[in-house]
Amino acid sequence: EASSSPTATLSIIQSKHRIKMVRSAMQRRNTAHSVFLQFHKHQLEKEEDGAEEKAKSEQSFEMFHQVMKTGVIYATTRANHHGFTMLDDEWANMGQGAPETGPLPGAPSRDFHMNIQDAEVEYAPTSGIKELREKVANYYNTLYRAGKDSQYSYENVCVVPGGRAGLTRIMAALGSIQVGYFTPDYTAYQQALGLFMRISPAPLLHREVHEALMSSEEFRFQAGGRGLGAMLLSNPANPTGQSLEGEELENYVKVARELGLALLMDEFYSHYYYDGEAVDPKDGGADDETNW
């Protein structure tokens, strides 16, 4: 009979294997979906008493939308659910990119005392105090503008309390344009770009899926074809760690000038860059220019 032939038997085995694979994939998808609901929509586990009623009450305010957790916030929320705290030495936070905050062996001593005058308790300048902005401008002039006629001043600097706050201020200053961003890149970009009706987010997809960086030629093609007014990117990139540098970075700047678009470069991880010829600081002090 046909059912007893080796070919038919092999087909039946393959079909059963496919069914198992599909079921396994569906189980993984269902598990991932339940995790998504729990940590992105703030639903509680059903084992807790009154969880369903509480979840319904939390979702009854239709004038608000549920803010999705992304990136570090999502990872930290899940870790907290499993017992993570900053004070537990058995945990290591590998997802936040935060520096060591405790004392380091052989490091200079730190002064934790601060005298605050009464006038400094008032509202601070929205762009930061002038003295700090001058220091930042001097830092960039020393690092990037040495020997050039054009120099930064404090008026080129705005101090913000965090990355998302800085992104929001930049987005608020832009006009009615398309702003491009890479995928993958820092997850907050897509959220920030979606806050303002004037801005049309435009994801730039990697046609070379095995390349972590988009070439300047491909960037010219996609940015020019979409008519971008600005491009938002992290450099070094988050989360891939790749960086635009040297000739390719110059090419990106040339493309931006030719197309008349603004390059909004998030360089948060520039101090985590360890390639090239490193120079150890002489004394490790904050004012030691060899540490730049």
Summarize the structure.
The chain has eight helices and four strands, in the order αααααβαβαβαβ. With 292 residues, the protein is an alpha/beta fold.
Layout of strands and helices, then pairs:
Elements: H1 6-40, H2 51-58, H3 71-81, H4 130-144, H5 163-173, E1 178-182, H6 188-193, E2 200-204, H7 216-226, E3 230-234, H8 246-259, E4 262-266
Parallel strand pairs: 1-2, 1-3, 3-4
What about the largest sheet? 4 strands, parallel
Radius of gyration over all CA atoms, rounded: 26 Å
Q: Could you tell me how far the N terminus lies from the C terminus, measured between alpha carbons in angstroms?
A: 80 Å
> Strands of the biggest beta sheet: in what spatial order?
2-1-3-4
Q: Specify the overall morphology.
A: globular
Q: pLDDT under 50 segments (min length 5)?
A: 42-48
What is the residue-averaged pLDDT? 79
Q: Write down the secondary-structure element order.
A: HHHHHEHEHEHE
Structural class category = alpha/beta
Q: What is the helix fraction of residues, given as a range?
A: 25-40%
The helix tally amounts to 8
Strand percentage: 5-15%
Structure summary, number of beta strands: 4
What features would you describe in this structure?
This protein has 292 residues and is an alpha/beta fold. The chain contains 8 helices and 4 strands, in the order H-H-H-H-H-E-H-E-H-E-H-E. A 4-stranded parallel β-sheet has the order 2-1-3-4. Helix 7 runs parallel beside helix 8. The protein is globular. About 2% of the residues have low confidence.
